[in-house]
Amino acid sequence: MTDLSPLIMSPVLAVKPWGGRRLSDYGKDLPKGEWIGESWEVADLPAAAVTTVSDPRSRVAAGPNAGKTLRDLIDEFGADLLGSAPPTPEGGFPLLVKLLDAREHLSVQVHPDAEYVAAHPEARLKAESWYVVEAAPNSHLYLGLREGTTPEDLASRAGTAATAGVLNRTPARAGDFHHLPAGLVHALGAGVLVAEVQTPSDTTFRIYDWEDRYRRPHRQMHIHEALEAVRPDLTSQPDPRPETPGTRELVKSTHYWIREHRGSGEFIELDQRDELRVLMAVTGGASLNNETHPVGTTVVIPAAVAARAEVELDHGSVLLEIGLGSAE
Q1: Is the pTM value of this prediction over 0.90?
Q2: Residues 57, 71, 206, 262: which is the catalytic one?
Q3: Residue 249: its pLDDT value, please?
Q4: Is 238 within the bounds of a domain?
Q5: Cα–Cα distance between 313 and 328 in angstroms, integer?
Q6: What total number of domains does the chain contain?
Q7: What is the structure's pLDDT at 237?
Q8: Which of 197, 229, 261 is the endpoint of a domain?
Q9: Known active-site residue 103
C-alpha cells in the first residue's frame, strides 16, 4: 500500500459565461481566451451527474499518489482517508470545494433540500457556504427573498428581469462569510470571488440568468423545479470579518464545518481529532509540515495523519479549515 500523506489535488477548471481571469492570481493555469468561472479544488462527482465540467473528479497533483482520484484513494485507504465520515451513497468523497470568480452576475438559482430530494430521487441535495475572498467596490450578493415575498410573487417574475426586485441584496465584503442552506434563492454578484464549500452535488435550478443585461447565450431555466424547491422564509446573514488574528467558527452543519484562521506569523491550532479535513489558503500563504504553500492552494489531509499536521501562517494570511460532520 502506498503511503498516505497530505494531498494537493489538480484543479478542474470550468468555463462559464459569467467567469473572469482572476483565478490566475490563485495559482490556476487558465487557458488563453476563456472566461473561467470555477476552479474545482476538491471534487469527486459521478460524471453522469455533472454537465458543467468534462471530468468532475480531481486528481492528486504530485507525490506517491499522483494521478489518483479521490475515489481511488477511498477504495484503497478507506477510513485512513475519511476517518469516521461515510462516503456518499455512490462511494464518493463527501465534499466539493471550489473557487468562484464572477466577472458578471451568476444566475438566480436554488438548490434542492432533503424534502425535495425525497420526492425527486434524481436530484441531489445541495447546501453550500461562501467565504468572500475578493469583492469589487459596490459589489453585492443576492441572498433570499425580500420579506413578504410569496411563492406566487416569485412565480410571476421568474425568467424575467423583475426577479431581481424580490431578492435581498447584501453588500459583498472581503472576509465575510455566508452559509446558504438548500432551498435559499441566491446569486453571486459581479466582481466577487468566493471560496465555496458544499455538499457533493451539481443540481442547480435556474430562475433568471440576466440575459437582458449581459447578452448571454440562452441557458436552460428550471422554473417549475425551482418554485417547488424554494423555501421562501430562508435568509443568510453575514458573519463579518474580524480585524485581529485568531480563529473563528464559521459554520457547523450536519454536512460539514468550517473554521477561519487569521495568521499572526505563528503556528495555529487545528482540530486535533484523527479526522479528515481540507485546508484552503485564501489570503497569503501557509506552511504545512514545514512545506510552503502559496495562496490558492487547497490540501486534503487524510484522517490517519491529521493529528500530526502543523501549520504556520504569515501575519495577515487567512486559512480555511474544513471538516466533515459537526465539529465538537
Answers
A1: yes
A2: 206
A3: 94
A4: no
A5: 23
A6: 2
A7: 84
A8: 229
A9: no
